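go over my protein:
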Amino acid sequence: MRAVTLAALWIVALTAQPSPASAQGEGGRYYSQTGHTLDARFVAFFDSHGGEGILGYPITDSFIDPQSGWRTQFLENARLELAPEGSAGVVGIRLSALGEALGGWQAPLAPDQIPAPTDATCRYYAESGHAVCHAFLYFYLSHGGPAQFGYPISEFKLEGERIVQYFQAFRFDWYPEAAPDAQVRLAPLGRQHFDAMGYDPALLRPRLPSDIQLYQVLELRPRVSVAHPVLGTDGRQTVYVAVRDQNLNPVPGATVVLTIHLAEGDRIVLLPVTDEHGLSQISFDYAGQPRGLSVALDGTAVLDRLQALTRDSFLIWY
């Protein structure tokens, strides 16, 4: 009974935001970070419930859930749902209770475990029978409290090697090694729930926007490889470099600088800029390298203000 009442309290506070009739799902907001478009019907709700900082970037486009029949969109930390017109007792858009769906519920605190009302470091929520304390409490209250995250459904606990606490829709993770303002982070429950539900992985595949001008390369992910992993003391090697972006799309026009660490010293070579497939290569001769030497290769890819390092090596053996 408590779970049903708790869910009803949170849903009433969270939903009641009808989908804008004018949006009709067209347009939306494209995110180069993940290669997906936030459905236009979800944009206003997304912005008013923490946006990217709380909900994360979209990791799918919106789709009709085959089980519920609701329009659904997964974000890094959450899942948005839009009830179809005529759904009994449901209005507009809501967040899924992913904390509950992923098994975060614990039995409520016993009466002798409830923090005192005078304890400024903890706040007890009778609605769910759990308390939020310390850094988790500060983050919880400063980012919307129950209306944003739902009520706590567990105490803080050790899960794996991380202290965590579950709420109806989210999970807080504690990173004591991080800077003070980044020690509490939201777990990627959107991705975890997507995987647990067994949806088609193709839904996660990044897409280019219909207007290619909207796409931004935000990160370089280069990879270097060699034609011959093992060579002799005198020889010729060919090095290949593939440069991709944050969504593994090829990056043309990137500059690649290769540093070859030979026995007599370093040799720096500038490769041709990457082609339309994000590829570049170069061949070089060397001589007199000692047997047993591992020749390290450091490649630096550069595009505008972005740069990233990739490494490989080959062995001198015969």
DSSP finds seven helices and 20 strands in the chain. Residues 2-98 form one domain.
